[in-house]
Structure formats: structure tokens, C-alpha cells
Amino acid sequence: MTSAPRWRRFDEWDTRPLRHDQFAAEDPEAGFATFHSPWDPTPSARVENGRVVEIDGKQEADFDILDSFIAAHHLDLEVIEEAMAMDPAEVARMLVDINVPRETLEQLARGMTPAKLVSVVSRMSSLEITFAYSKMRQRRTPGNQAHVTNAKDDPLQLAADSAVAVALGFDEVETTMRVASNSWANAIACAVGAAVGRGGVLFQCSIEEAEELRIGMAGFTSYAETVSVYGTEAAFVDGDDTPWSKAFLTAAYASRGMKARCTSGASAELLMGFHERQSVLYLEARCLCLQRAMGVQGTQNGGIDGAPLTASMAGGMRELMAENLIAAWLGLECASGNDTRISESEIRVGAKITPFLMAGSDLLCSGFGSIRKYDNSFNPSLFNGEDIEDFLVLQRDFEADGGLTPVDEGDIREIRMHAIRAIAAVFEELELATVPESWMVSVAAASGSLETETFPTSEVTRISAAIRDRGLTAVDVVRALERRGFAREAENLLLMLRQRISGDYLQTSAILRDGRVISALNDPNDYRGPGSGYRMSDARRDAVRNVRDLQTREKVLERERRLDPTAEPWLIVAGEAQKGTDPREVVIGLSPAFGNELTQTTAGHDLIDVVLALTDGIREGGGAPRLIRIRHTADTSFLGLTAARLSGSGYAIGIQAKGTAVIHRADRLPHMNIELFSNAPVTTLEHYRAMGRNAALYARGETPEPIIVPVDGQALGARYHVRVAMLYAIETGLVVPEAAPVDLEMSIGQGGLSR
Amino acid sequence: MSSPLDLYPISEKAPERAVSASGMPLDRLTLDAIVSGRVGADDIRISADVLKQQAAIARAAGRDRLALNLERAAELVAVPQDIILETYEMMRPGRLQDSRLLSARAEMLRRDYGAHAIAALIDEAVAVYERRNLFRRRY
Fold first, then answer.
1. Of the listed A119, A138, A147, A675, which one is catalytic?
2. A242, A256, A331 ranked by CB distance to B63: nearest
3. Residue A549 annotated in active site
4. What are the backbone dihedrals phi and psi of residue A569, each rounded to the nearest 5 degrees, phi first?
5. Which residues contact A42 (CB under 8 A, 6 or more apart)?
6. What is the mean pLDDT of residues A191-204?
7. All domains of chain B, ordered by start, with CATH?
């Protein structure tokens, strides 16, 4: 007996992008556990003489650096007893209860240990976590952050791409370098680019802490998110910090007027090799309690660098959302991950972002790659330059605000060139470099750095060193912009400097919109059920809806009708149609708009050619074609049946202008046709000819092989139905219920009439 | 105005209270002033006073941890950049083998800059680092 063969479907599955992803089995001992590990502690806390002396089963003498900091600065003695005593299931219900205010829950979180927080969210489904997140997130208006980097550290491209990111609506722009010494050139280029357009975008240059502070002090950057924290002491120390050094650094950023957020996320400890066999969510809960304790306004979490590893585990995506929820619940701004690409599968990517689109987030992506994947100096993001339009359409699909706005091709063209001219002018004014016109044009047109003719990297490094060594600041750049006629950009950059003095964007979840700060303080998330919380304004909804290449009736009809008012009609009415007597006769019943209002099928075939193909085919099959116009219906089945009832053979073809056609017989029920071409967009003239031939063969009593129009799985509905619906409305508009079918003669070519 | 929250955003509700580290009020930070060279690097630095106001606003909004951080930040405004970076380096694990150096740094910040909250944070670190053996050589 031969063995059962391998099902070839598996070969096909093997070639899918999904199969590049790795999936890890649960193994808590090796740190592969999402919500629970046998080594996770049971929630507990004990207070003695005004001190927290026990956290999650650990006594004060055994506190590691995280426990010590959490005990001293996170746990609120006023609520700890009440909060720790609460039933986790009850708290989970409160998180999804629209009648329990966000503030009440935030108050309780201040008395909860990491294990207690985990005991609550681990009971919640993905849907419940998403819903709770929409209620608990801090700022009402959602936002988004872009990565702007390129593989050459090219300042011209950085300026152009920053301007595009701003035009797309990103609230924050984050850059980093391939070569660390290029940081100053990167900073100045992104700062200038971000000032083109609406302005008021927060900008960050991710680099080693001391340098980041210096760049910030020079006024080029306005926030930092490199304050990484980790969930175990060993990982923390390996990351070269302690909670105290990070708390100090956080204060240092604020002392220079810079917004700061921490970075943490599931599986970081696992990647670093110090997971202590505990679940990734428990370790992340420790990170988040620590962040609240440090007094940082917010976090970027949700996996970040560890996201792909987390997503390899069962429930990984649910875990990533759960840790975002804990962040918001602790009152932290949440830049909710969705940055590192967690999969090669576009389906998984789309699924990953959808809950966040629905729930909203302070910053949906803590780094949406606004540039091409290969230009992303962090790593490819969940969404990248290649996918921006997919994201815009998802916003439109769900009428959800992901923070981005469709852009007009012509506007972008101008914006890119303007940004490049602005940075070139600044370089020239500050005697840093002269930029040839050909470079500007090359970069403006380029989708990514592989296509650009621009500065060699050594030149960028020289410019960067000059900016740093000469102590140039944003004030110098504002002056240079103004002197070279870029007054609006100078004003926009100045706006950022003014904001830095008022410190308004140091508050939780602050971004700038229209030059004004909005944060959790003056735009608090007030979701309390339907009709409350964030709703798009009419203007915003219109903007989100207006994706590129919208089909309108005007556009479709202009393109598809191709009516030539001077042309002679090619179908001439020859009186009311009577039943034929020729047994070889095959009647072709044309729909009301066929060949008059509408002139081509959805496959693009001229209807004259279609009729000729059908009639030629009928003759080939030994039949005699007769054309009639049917006016009382536009439905394919009834077109076919009506024609068949008038046919001498009892066989007929019914066809609509869009090309859908049917072979019918006089004695059949309306929807029991003989053959049907339902996929007009892929139907060729050869198919119509074959249909004619078959109809004639049926009329002669033969049983030919039915014609199969092959389909290759295209989403024909997505590709054609907008046009089909608009065109079909013309057919139905011409229907006259009582009108009888009429015979037609065809006048083609040299003016001869034929039947 | 009964609550500090009423002053937020300061740039809109009370711009006269926004004065940079050099003492320049917000309304003098104009394009004209920059073009004519009347604005220097210190004029675009946030002041301790504004940070304290933002701390009061955060506290009034029920965000006391953020308020404490902004108060620590206010103490660091006058501290020069190199001392900040040096202190940060000293607080990193394994940089010092002698806890007294870190205690002395806390004392210096307290004495020379009135940075009491920062000094307290460092003192707390010293105690925990001792207990967790973080004054050990790492390289």
C-alpha cells in the first residue's frame, strides 16, 4: 500500500511570509510565559510603622533595587490596605465599567503591588483589555509618533521626510543615527524639516544620554524617551542603571525643559538573559510601578524591542495590550508600542494595530516608520513608509482616529522641496555646507536613501562636528531661517522654544496641536460610555475619509461612459419584437443601457466588439443570431429568459452592459440558467464568442462543454464593485416596467445594417 | 484663580508667569529679538520658578509623583551640565567603589545648590547600593 501523500497545501503554506515568524512553546523556566509563571509571586503587601515592609511575598531585608524603590515611592499608604484587599475580579469589572471613573481606578492602582496589578488584568480578555484601555488612557485626543531616519544619515532627506511626517499629522518625530557622531546634523535637519508645515511637533534625537541632554539644551529637541527601565535587578544593572540613576536623569531632562518618558516592555529581561523565570507581564508591571515612582510623566511600552519575542508566545499580543493598560491605569502617558515589526505576516500586522485604532492611544505607535523599511535606523516598524496608505484606509474603515491624515500628492511635492531648500539655506547661512541643486531634486523625488544623490557620510560627520563644536543652537537656526526668507518656519521653530520656557508639555501626555499644548490636564480622557470621550469632529472625519483616489460618480461616469454625442447610434430600433420561428435562432437580449448610455464592459471591451463576438460565435455554432433590446428589466436572469421566450429555438443570451451574460432557455425558471458569466471583469471576447457558439449548439440539441471563465482569486468585488454599482444604476434608471422588447438592427463600420 | 490648575497651560492662561532661566519673559522671545541678536542660549532655558509652578499644577491635578519629579528638576536648573552628567555617572551601578564619594556628592548639591530633594534621592541610593552590593567594580 502506498503511504498517504503530503498535502501540497503545506508546501504553499511553507512559502507564506507567516512562516518566517517563529512561535515559541510556553516554558516559564526559560522565561517564556506571558501572564503567569509558577515563579510569579502571590500579591501581598504589609505596612509597619509607616513603612512598606513586604511586597509580593518578599520581606524588606530581601528587597532588591526595584522593590526598594517601589516601596519608597510608588505604594501609597493611604490606599494600600484597601487596594490590596480587593477582589481582583471585582477590580477587573470596574476597569470595564463605564460607571466607574478613571480617577477612582487610578487611585486604587497607587496602592497595588506589581503582582496585584497583574492579578487583575490577567483575568481580562483581549476585548476587555482594549475597552479598558480606551477608558483609562490619559489624553482624550489620540496621537501618533513617527520614526524619521535614513541609512545615509542624510540631512536633506531627514528634512524632507520630517516635513512629510508633520504633514501626515504625526505629533512626535523621533530620529537616530547609523553613525553616532552624526547626531547634531540629524537633529538640526529634523528640527528644520519638522518646522515646515503646521509646526509644533515634538522632536527627539535618540542617542547616549549625555549627548541627548546637550542636543536638547541647544534647543533642537524637545523630548527624550531613552530612559529605559527593566523588571529585574540583574537586567537593570546590566543595562547600566538603577532606579535612582534613572530618576535623577528624568529630573535632569525636565530641568532642561525636555519632556521625557521611560521605555520598558515585555521580554526585555528575557533578551538580556535575566528573567528570573517570571512572566513577562509581571516583570513589566514592576517596571511600570517603578516609572510611576520615579515621577516620569509617561512610558513607551508594549514590547518595544521585545515585542517580536513576546508575539512569539501564545497570548503575546494580548499581553502587550495588557501592559499598555497597566501603564495608563497607573496614570502614565502611554506610547503604546506598535513599533518594532512583530511579524512578516501583513495579516498579523493589521490585526496588531486594530485594537489600538479602536481604543485610541496617547501615541498609537511609539515609532511608526514614516520612511522606507530599509531606511529605519531603529528597526523596521510595525507600519512603515510602504504601508502608510494601508493605515490611512484602516482609519477610514473603522472611522477611528489613528492620528494621521491623508496627504495630497501635489502638496507633498511642494513640502519636500521646501524643506530641502530650508535646510540647504540654513547650512549655507551658517557656513556649514553648500548644497547643489541636483542633490535637492534627487532627494525630493527619492522614496528612500538608495535612490539619492547627496552628501557623502564623511561630509555629514564634518557638518555634525561643526554644529557641536561651534555651539550652534536653535536660536541660530531660527535666525538663519528668517534671514533666508523662511519666516514661517522660523516662527514654527520659535514656537517650540517658547513652549520650552513655559514647560506646559512637561505635564502628562502633552503634545502640541495648532501651536497649543493639549495634555491629560486640559484634554483629559473623559470616556464614560457612548457619546462621551473622544469623537472625531466633522472636519476631522472628513479629513480621515478623504483617502487618495476616491471614486465619485462623476469620475466613474466620465471615464466609463465615453459617450460621443456626435456618433451615429449603432443599434437601430426596428419595431416590437415578436416570437421567432427559425429553430436555429438564438436571440441576444440586450439590457436597457447597452450600447447607448454605456459603451464598454467592466473588462474594458467595447460593446460593439462584444456583440460581434456573440453573433460570430452563434454563426460558428450553426445558429442564427437576432438582437433585441429589453426595456422592462436589467436583471441578467430575466434578460435571458425574456429573450429565450422570444427565440425560435427557445435558447437565448441575456447580457448587461457591464458584461454579465447568461444562456437561458424558454421553459426554465428564471434563476435556473444554462450557463452564466458572472465575473465580467475577467471575461474576454473569446469567452463571449464561445458563449455564442455554445448557445447555438444547445439550440441544435447538442450538449457542449460549458464555458468556464477562469478566476485566479482576485478580490473582484474590491476591485470593481464601486464602478459596477454606479454603472448598474444607469441600467436600472432606464428600466420602463411596461415596455415591450424591441428588435434591433446593427449599423456598424461602413454604415450597413445587419441583424 | 483658586487652583494652580487654572493656570494651565501657562503659555495661554498666564504667559506673564513664564520667564526663562535668564529672566527673559516669554513675550520678549520674538523673531525680532532673535534676528537682532538679543537672545542667547540661556534665554531659551526653562527656569526653576516655572518648574515649581508646573509641579504645583501637577499636584493639583492629582499627580503627586510627577510633581515631586518636577520639584527635583527645579533644583537642577542651576546645576551646571557637567556636574549633572558627572553625578549621573556616579549614580550608575559599579562606577564608585566607595559609597562616601556619592554621599559627598549629595552633600555638595545640598550645600552649593540647595538641592535637598535631589540630595535625599542620592542618600537613599547610597543606602540601597550598600545593601545590594552595587559599589562593586563592573569594569
1. A147
2. A331
3. no
4. -65, 140
5. A56, A57, A115
6. 90
7. 1-75 (no CATH), 78-139 (1.10.1510.20)
